[in-house]
Specification:
alpha/beta; six-stranded mixed sheet; 23% strand; single chain; Udp-n-acetylmuramoylalanyl-d-glutamate--2,6- Diaminopimelate Ligase, Chain: A, domain 1; 25 strands; 31% helix; 3 domains
């Protein structure tokens, strides 16, 4: 594609150099630049892409988009100065892939917890009626293909995101469901995508290392609702009113507490591995079941039903599809075994989600409840003692371990978790102060829980990694799977880290 065509899509840009050159590829990662590429220099949290302009020129880049004034040494390339490189990257990525978002009805799901589950349920409810694609934390689904979208990534960078959307269009999809994070919104990864419906699940303590305050965090989430035609909102969340004020189109509410919500849960129960419940809307009461466990999933189901009904899926079809929802990887995923243990793997990695999972399993457990988790490095440090306190208040035994230590000392992180464990118990759970162990090696921690602590009838929940397939030590991604580590432990072995190729 000729550079001049790409530049034509950019607002308020200043061009320095020749524009009649052919562009063979686009990237914001200097490591991916090749001959005749366009490089978009992004100011990141750790690195400033402008620092690598000289490097990408040597690799064959013929054009650069950036925010800084051009340097005289860049005279051999075309430099395009813009107000926001992130916005420019989104616009260029969309244009490069044929503006696929304009050919799809796009549903965005945001919130602290439940995004992946809600996005996945919406996908399953819609896909049976009209072809739908999905992009979420667990990856992308396009037709029969399941695609890994990257390491620890929910919202892919714009070039990958628009490529996935373009493949959905080629596949014949009419709808796309996208899980949207506060980082994705703040960093303009979904800029330029016109969402037809925005879904709000909830907001609780998370990502304050990045956003610095709850006010900023909530404001970032709320960006998804600016000007959206349809909004589906959780009326039970304390931030509901704030999000509601951002909505100018149709608003649909759901609730497990407020009878004035459009969709209201009036009954609930759990039998075996199914949730049974009734939903009341303007047309009456609808009894159904879903092949999920955990009462906290009822709000995710309600949000998904709101979306399905908005797009004309019949109640009969909703009921049929909910009864066949496949288990979602890394979300209270049960690991079968012959030791009479209940072992679950869950993605819970913030205080509220850990509390909900442990409270739910506390009620189901006839023996002891054993919790295994850590806290990721270079993230919100305030949650570490909070999670330690929650775990010893609800679990009989807690094992604090590593979860993506990155460039921090794993033992330091675990000590900060343990500091909370030594404090008062969580409100409402007074009287229980469980034992805790500190085992930095995650594989050894899982082995220890299964082989040295657990007895028949006990429940073990391994939290924090869920579906993820890698763990970061000192900036290096190593192959890792909690499910595989659990299977190793059941065989009496300890899974060790292996560096990714």
């Amino acid at each position: 594609m000729q550079l001049s065509r790409i530049i034509g899509r950019l607002d308020q840009s200043l061009v320095f150099g020749e524009t009649s050159v052919e562009i063979d590829g686009i990237s914001s990662d200097s490591r991916e630049i090749g001959k005749n590429f366009l490089f978009v220099a992004i100011r990141g949290e750790r690195f400033d892409g402008h620092q690598f302009i000289s490097d990408v020129m040597k690799k064959g880049a013929v054009a650069v988009i950036g925010e800084k004034e051009p340097d005289p040494s860049w005279k051999d390339i075309c430099y395009i100065k813009v107000l926001s490189s992130r916005m420019a990257l989104s616009e260029v990525a969309s244009f490069w892939h044929g503006d696929p978002a304009k050919k799809l009805t796009i549903i965005g799901v945001t919130g602290t917890k439940g995004k992946t589950t809600t996005s996945t349920i919406i996908y399953h409810l819609l896909n049976k009626v009209r072809k739908t694609g999905l992009i979420c934390t667990n990856g992308a689904i396009i037709g029969r293909r399941r695609i890994d979208t990257g390491l620890h990534v929910t919202n892919p960078e714009p070039i990958v995101l628009h490529k996935l959307l373009s493949e959905m269009v080629k596949e014949g999809c009419r709808y796309a469901v996208i899980e949207v994070t506060s980082h994705g919104l703040d960093q303009e990864r979904v800029a330029g995508i016109k969402f037809d419906t925005a879904v709000f699940t909830n907001i609780s303590h998370e990502h304050l290392d990045y956003h610095k305050s709850m006010k900023n965090y909530v404001a970032a989430k709320a960006k998804l609702f600016d000007g959206v035609p349809n909004a589906v909102l959780n009326a039970d969340d304390r931030h509901f009113r704030y999000i509601l004020k951002k909505c100018i189109g149709k608003v649909i509410t759901y609730s497990t507490k407020r009878k004035d919500a459009h969709y209201f849960l009036i009954d609930r129960g759990e039998t075996g591995e199914k949730l049974n419940f009734s939903i009341r809307d303007s047309s009456g009461i609808h009894n159904m079941s879903a092949s999920l466990i955990g009462n906290f999933n009822l709000q995710n189901i309600l949000a998904s039903v709101c979306v399905a009904r908005l797009y004309g899926v019949s109640w009969d079809m909703v009921s049929e599809r909910l009864s066949k929802i496949p288990r979602i990887e890394g979300r209270l995923e049960k690991v079968s075994n012959d030791r009479s243990l209940s072992i679950y793997i869950d993605f819970a990695h913030n205080p509220d989600s850990l509390k909900k999972v442990l409270r739910y399993l506390r009620e189901k457990t006839r023996g002891r409840l054993i919790s295994v988790f850590g806290c990721a490095a270079e993230r919100d440090t305030n949650k570490r003692p909070m999670m330690g306190r929650i775990s010893v208040s609800l679990a009989d035994i807690s094992i604090f371990t590593s979860e993506d230590p990155r460039n921090e000392n794993p033992e330091k992180i675990i000590d900060e978790i343990a500091e909370g464990a030594r404090q008062k118990t969580v409100s409402g759970d007074a009287g229980r102060i469980g034992t805790y162990y500190k085992i930095p090696d995650r594989g050894k921690a899982i082995w220890f829980a299964i082989n040295k602590i657990a007895s028949p009838g006990d429940t073990i929940v391994i939290c924090g990694k869920g579906h993820e397939k890698s763990m970061n030590y000192a900036g290096i991604e190593y192959l890792w799977s909690d499910k595989l580590a659990t299977k190793f432990a059941l065989d009496g072995k300890i899974l060790t880290l292996k560096e990714r190729a």
